[in-house]
Design a protein that fits this description.
Helix content is about 70%, strand content about 5%. It starts with a helix and ends with a helix.
């Protein structure tokens, strides 16, 4: 999420100092962040739009403020998209945007179980949405004060802290594992700390000192965690390019164990006469190892989790009618986040059960063979 974090940092600086160049680079990051990660980039755009409304509301329609903020941001965003067109070409960029636009709508809701538990017995799931609500309510309470004092800079930074946690919390709604909860909670706690910082100004001196001390301890803890994580990853990142270069010169067999080589040879014997491959697992290496194209446009079942894409997959699968398909494998690739594809994709599962039957099973692999016309008529 490096581009998004850089963009949020620039946004805070731009909101604080109201410099055209800072708003320009904040806009420049927006298409790059979207291209890096569709969902994170989408959150970044929503935060930008929210913050750009603050000077318009507080200073009303002050033309000079609009030029400094909105126009500068738009100039940066246009420059960013133009840069992407130069790098990737207009056709490839258009294909990327049109192909992945729907992904942002439901991507987070296919990765894991939807938010499971609320209540005192599950505080780790209950507290983050409560803190998100406190952040938004806190900003709403402070907003009249910002209007009266015309404090554009403070209002903008406070809004960034409040809405960033709100939008990023969406990542945990469908993927409620421990890692994602910690990831989104960091942004939420920053907003909560900012609210506490300014709220303490209305308290006696001792209360302000206690509040600020708690905030600084929390900030140092979060920063320390980030620095520790970053420094631990530096050696791995620095050595990645060298490993990739050396790996590219090796043959495919160098990356496979003896057992995996045996699997490939066995699978090749079953699929030698097939024009294409359909795998109900999420192991994309099979298409390369077996030298077979995918029978469907969406070759990773995980990406077809929406019912719209399941129906599209079934239309293409019914047209290709592969004689054999891979139903499951010993690698566990058909159960991302412990959710079996048979549960995640019920329409595809029903189709396989209706038109295919178990054929071969070896070393944890399950292959299904298509039911012939005579078998169908015999079963009636």
């Amino acid at each position: 999420d490096f581009p998004v974090l850089i963009g949020l940092g620039l946004m805070v600086l731009a909101a604080t100092y109201q410099k055209k160049v800072l708003w320009f680079f904040t806009g420049l990051i927006s298409p790059l962040a979207f291209f890096y990660s569709i969902d994170r980039g989408g959150y970044y755009l929503l935060i930008c739009f929210s913050v750009l409304m603050v000077p318009i509301l507080i200073r009303k329609l002050d033309v000079s403020i609009i030029k400094n903020t909105v126009f500068s941001w738009l100039a940066g965003a246009i420059a960013g998209w133009f840069l992407l067109i130069l790098v990737f070409g207009p056709l490839d960029l258009f294909a990327f945007v049109t192909t992945t636009s729907n992904w942002f709508k439901w991507k987070d809701f296919i990765d894991s179980y939807v938010y499971p538990d609320f209540g005192l017995r599950s505080l780790r799931h209950t507290l983050p949405p409560v803190f998100v609500l406190i952040n938004l309510l806190g900003f709403s309470v402070m907003l009249p004060r910002y209007f009266r004092a015309r404090e554009l800079e403070i209002a903008s930074v406070h809004l960034i802290a409040a809405v960033a946690g709100f939008f990023y919390y969406r990542s945990a709604l469908g993927r409620s594992d421990e890692g994602h909860l910690k990831y989104v909670s960091t942004v939420i706690f920053v907003g909560l700390g900012y609210l506490g910082w300014w709220s303490a100004m209305f308290f006696p001196l001792i209360a302000r000192r206690v509040t600020m001390t708690i905030f600084l301890i929390g900030l140092l803890w979060v920063s320390g965690q980030s620095v520790f994580f970053a420094t631990a990853k530096i050696p791995e990142i620095m050595g990645a390019s060298g490993r990739l270069i050396s790996a590219a010169a090796k043959p495919d067999d160098a990356f496979l164990s003896a057992e995996q080589k045996k699997w490939v040879i066995s699978l090749q014997s079953y699929f030698s006469n097939e024009k294409c491959l359909f795998s109900f697992t999420n192991d994309n290496s099979l298409y390369y190892l077996l030298r077979k194209p995918s029978c469907t446009w969406i070759f990773t079942p995980l990406s077809a989790s929406s019912r719209t894409y399941q129906r599209q997959m079934l239309l293409e699968l019914d047209e290709a009618k592969p004689g054999v398909l891979i139903y499951s494998s010993p690698t566990g690739a058909q159960a991302i986040d412990s959710i079996q594809n048979s549960i995640r994709l019920p329409l595809v599962q029903d189709y396989i059960i209706k038109y295919y039957r178990p054929a071969e099973e070896f070393d944890g692999w399950k292959l299904y063979r298509r039911i012939t016309g005579s078998e169908q008529s015999g079963s009636r």
